[in-house]
Amino acid sequence: MKSFLILTATFVLVFNTNAAEKSLGPDDMPKGFVSGDASKGSALVQSCAACHGADGNSINSDWPKIAGQNEKYLYEQIKYFRSGERNNALMMTVTPYLQSLSEKDLLDIAAFYSSNVSTGGQAKNDTELLELGTKLYRFGDIKKQIPACTSCHSVYGDGNNLANYPAVAGQQVGYLVSSLKAYRSKERNAGEQSLVMQSIAENLTDNEIDALANYMHGLYK
């Protein structure tokens, strides 16, 4: 019970931060973060296009869309892949390339993808699945110690720049499912935010994960 109260308090704090962000606008970044140069980043992503698409909109459900994603979040994830702290079989093939780049290059790549627009998605028209996904995303499940996803990712799934939480609107279903399961198994553990996601995902069933993935895929950022 104590751990749940702590977790709940954390999400209330994040929710308040999220509310504050609305008055700042979508382009505001966390204090001290210096954005990269999107035009320079466009010349550095040839190795990324095969999986993520030329503009960050992947066509494979298992590969994430990164177009329009939170810039600082993208930058940090690229650094995790480069250092090996975050593991992925496909990303390991570009690790040598990432290791050859400067910090400024990584910022520029993040800026390029963040500047593009996500193509969005269409939720599966399954009443039972949509009802469950809607309930969990908007309201959570107190009995199962699952907070509402809106607390960090916002009502429309556009994330929270100030708190550095990623956008999930329109994200690929396969990627969302595999990510939530990786958090649940604690396989994905790079960064402090992963601890929050692990504590949530460990209480989700496979069906609930499928429902959430379907709902988030259909959100419009």
The helix tally amounts to: 12
Outline type: globular
User: Whole-Å distance between the termini?
Assistant: 34 Å
CATH architecture of the largest domain: Orthogonal Bundle
Sheet with most strands: none
Q: Which parts are unreliable, with pLDDT below 50 for 5 consecutive residues or more?
A: 1-26
CATH superfamily (homologous) name of the largest domain: Cytochrome c-like domain
Mean model confidence by pLDDT: 89
**Percent helix:** 40-55%
CATH class identity of the largest domain: Mainly Alpha
Class computed from helices, strands and strand pairing: mainly alpha
* Strand count: 0
Radius of gyration: 17 Å
How many domains in all? 2
Structure summary:
This protein has 221 residues and is mainly alpha-helical. The chain has helices spanning 2-22, 38-41, 49-52, 71-83, 89-92, 95-99, 103-115, 127-139, 150-153, 173-184, 193-201, 206-217.
Description:
This protein is mostly helical. The chain has two domains: 2-21 and 121-217, Cytochrome Bc1 Complex, Chain D, domain 2, CATH 1.10.760.10; 46-115, Orthogonal Bundle (Cytochrome Bc1 Complex, Chain D, domain 2), CATH 1.10.760. Helix content is 52%, strand content 0%. It has twelve helices and no strands. The chain has helices spanning 2-22, 38-41, 49-52, 71-83, 89-92, 95-99, 103-115, 127-139, 150-153, 173-184, 193-201, 206-217. α4 (71-83) packs across α7 (103-115). The radius of gyration is 17 Å and the shape is globular. Mean pLDDT is 89; it is low at 1-26.
